[in-house]
């Protein structure tokens, strides 16, 4: 899967993610965002919710995306992102 296909799919499914899980913002970062992903690469996704990131919401989004994309998803909330990693994630991030 290439970056453009991924971004299109995420944009199409964002309303469902917002309704079901309270997703407010989504961004792709890492190798997919940089265009260096391999066939076996996971998808790194940064997410923000409209309320607390409960386990039901967090894992609901992760499993939904993994089923949709048919590959592992490394989901990170904006609030849980470590400060030392934030500049690298923000540099690569493509917001959906």
CATH topology: Beta Polymerase, domain 2
CATH class descriptor: Alpha Beta
- General shape: globular
The CATH architecture can be named as 2-Layer Sandwich
Compute the number of strand runs: 4
CATH homologous superfamily classification: Beta Polymerase, domain 2
Order of helices and strands: HEHEHEHE
What is the share of helical residues? 40-55%
Number of helices: 4
The overall pLDDT, averaged over residues, is 96
Estimated share of beta-strand residues: 15-25%
Please list the strands of the largest sheet in the order they lie side by side: 3-2-1-4
Distance between the termini: 16 Å
Return the structural class.
alpha+beta
* Rg: 12 Å
Note the main sheet: 4 strands, mixed
Features:
four-stranded mixed β-sheet; alpha+beta; Beta Polymerase, domain 2; 4 helices; 96 residues
What does this structure look like?
- This protein is α+β, with helices and mostly antiparallel strands and 96 residues long.
- It has a single domain, classed as Beta Polymerase, domain 2 (2-Layer Sandwich), CATH 3.30.460.
- It has 4 helices and 4 strands, in the order αβαβαβαβ.
- Strands 3-2-1-4 form a 4-stranded mixed beta sheet, with helices on both faces.
- α1 (3-21) runs antiparallel to α3.
- It is globular and about 35 Å long.
- The mean pLDDT is 96.
């Amino acid at each position: 899967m290439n970056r453009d296909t991924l971004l299109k799919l995420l944009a199409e499914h964002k309303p469902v993610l917002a309704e079901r899980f309270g997703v407010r913002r989504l961004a792709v970062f890492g190798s997919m965002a940089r265009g260096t992903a391999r066939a076996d690469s996971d998808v790194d996704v940064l997410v923000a919710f409209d309320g607390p990131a409960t386990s039901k919401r967090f894992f609901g989004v992760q499993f939904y995306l993994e089923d949709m994309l048919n590959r592992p998803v490394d989901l990170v909330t904006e609030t849980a992102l470590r400060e030392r990693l934030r500049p690298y994630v923000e540099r690569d991030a493509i917001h959906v």
